[in-house]
Each structure stands twice: as C-alpha cells, then as structure tokens.
Amino acid sequence: MLRAQQILDARSLLVLDSFPVKFLTPTVRCRSIVSIIFASLLCWQGAACAQELRHIYYGTSASVAHLPVWVAKDASYFAKRGLNVEPVQIRGGALITLGIMSGQLQFSGAGAESVVAARVEGAEIVLLACPSDLEPIFLITRPEIKSPAELKGKASAVTRIGSSTHFYLRAALRLVGLDADKDMTILQLGAGPEMATALESGRIAAAALNTRYALPFLRRNWPVLVDLTKTDLVYPSSCVTGSRAYVKSEPKVVEDFLASYVAGIQLIKKDSAFAERSLIKWTREKDNYVVAKSIETHARIFKSLPYVPDKGIENIVKDLASRRNVPKEFFAKPELFRDNGPLDRALAR
C-alpha cells in the first residue's frame, strides 16, 4: 500500500527540468512521462481499492499550507463522506501539476503559478479552492549582506523554475529594486529544506522562505529584506486543483472533498493542539517552537471560505506575460482558471 509520506525526488527527473515550456501542453509524451513517474507511487493500491471508501490521491509538498488536507484526514472528515484521501508528498509544484494533467492524481495542492501556466498552454486544469490569499514569505539574506545591491551577481534558490517559490522570489526582489532572473543566479534545489540548508551554508546569498523554514533564521536575527505579508500582494498557493474532466464527471466526489477541506480549516482555527499533532505527523517537524508558530500563523491567514482570489489570478497572468507570450484572451478572465461552482455547492450543504 502507498505510504503517504513517500517522496518523489524531482531532482532525479532531469527530463522535467525544462517545465513548463516543454511539458505543459498535455501531449501524449507528457502523459507517458508522468505515468511512469507516478506508477511507482500508485502501484501498491490493490487492497485499498477494494475498500468501500473511494480512494483519492492528493499531491502535496511539505508546506504548512497543505494543513487543511492533513487535518481533515486525521479528523476522519473525508472518511465520513466516503473518501479515503491519501496525501502523496511530491517535490515541486510543477510535478504536482503534471500529476493532475496525467490523471494519476485526482486532486493536488498546487501553486496557482504552475496551474495558470499549464492552462495557458492548453491543459484542462482548474483551481477549486485556495486556503489563503498569500503564504507568509520572508526574503532572508546571509548576515554579511548589508544592502539589496550586494545581492547582484550572487545566487538564490527556488524549488523549481515556474514554481510558487520562483514567483515569491521574483516578487520580493522587485520590491527592493532587483530582477531575480537578471541580477541573480537561480538554483533549482527541489524543496524548502534544501533551500534553507543552502542559505545556512552560504551556497546561496538569499532565499524567499515560508514560515516553517524562515523561523530558525528569524530567531537568530538574520536580515529580512522583505516580509510579503506586509505588502498588498495576492498570490494563492497550495490551492486545491483538479482536472476539468474529473470535476465534470465526479461532481459529488469533488463537493465531498471540498466540504471536508473546509471542515479541516475550521478545525485548525478551533483546535490548535489537534492541528499541531497533524503537522508533526505529516512533516515530522521536531522543533516545537516552529510547530506552534506555524499553526498560529496559518490559523490566522486561512480563509473560512477558501475561494480562489481573482486578484491573485490576475497577478499571476501579468507576471507570466512579463516572461513569455500569453494570448490576450486569458487576461481579465479568471473563470478560465478557476471554478467556484463546486465550492459553492459544498458550502450550501
């Protein structure tokens, strides 16, 4: 049976390093590659599929923003609605998005950046819910960096090019007058822990880190050039994502999933101790301070009504258009990227 904590190491999948340019279009080649990737994750499901509960695979990263899914599973909210949701941890939002496009994952918690890019390239993929309008992100530099100008010519890191971390880095550096793609060398390191380790060791000079990985540096008073929570930026990350075909063919499953997801958010806001236990279970975080602060922060920013923010989609389309061609029909049309209908119906129950 599939282990929920099993990790797909994106660094070994060099064929996907050019995502999203080559592989966003849902071609046979893309589907074949992704099917091979996910076969190793999903081929142990035999006994589980025989159970009465409907088996659902949900792609996640190690981000705390996926907490509603972990809490909803641990509180049996999914099971009460006939779903056996299996979180599958995958390194990099680009690969998570590819899992949806290939049909190997029914839902995923994906950054809107990769979803919008895939949709522009023709993929029938859709955002269904976003837990927050912005993940807490801090642009942290090495102690020896005294000004933003000193970052020019130095290295930073993202999980993968085209990921949420890439968007956050570009947005934060713009606020201090730098162009991430021109002024710095950007390394693809696969996941948050590797980014934090690289900053600690001096391999990179700056990183845009979420709360979980930023806290150890904040406690030691490392320089923070930008705190994105103190800006008006709207960027939806770790959003519930599915294929339009699945949403159309399985409306009850989609609505049951979203109803359970919302219940998970409500429990996080009401019971921090339960949320902390789930976070420890799914991330194996051992620092009690990091756990407590992560829950405190996300309980505050999670939305009781987790609709996809149209402003966030607009920001992403504009950002994408600054780097590549985006057909004009995708501007000012958030409905091309999100579907509020399933969440509306889930909340109306």
Describe the protein's architecture and organization:
The protein has 349 residues and is of the alpha/beta class. It folds into two domains: 7-133 and 235-347, Periplasmic binding protein-like II (D-Maltodextrin-Binding Protein, domain 2), CATH 3.40.190; 137-230, 3-Layer(aba) Sandwich (D-Maltodextrin-Binding Protein, domain 2), CATH 3.40.190. The chain is built from 16 helices and eleven strands. The chain has helices at residues 28-42, 46-49, 67-74, 77-80, 93-102, 112-120, 164-175, 180-183, 192-201, 211-219, 244-249, 251-270, 272-283, 288-301, 310-321, 341-347; strands at 7-8, 54-60, 83-90, 107-110, 125-129, 137-141, 155-158, 185-188, 206-210, 224-227, 239-243. A six-stranded mixed beta sheet has the order 1-3-2-4-11-5, with helices on both faces. A three-stranded antiparallel beta sheet has the order 9-6-10, sandwiched between helices. Helix 10 (211-219) crosses helix 14. The longest helix is centred in the last third of the chain and has 20 residues, at 251-270. The radius of gyration is 19 Å and the shape is globular. The chain starts with 6 loop residues before the first strand and ends with a helix. 50% of the residues are buried.
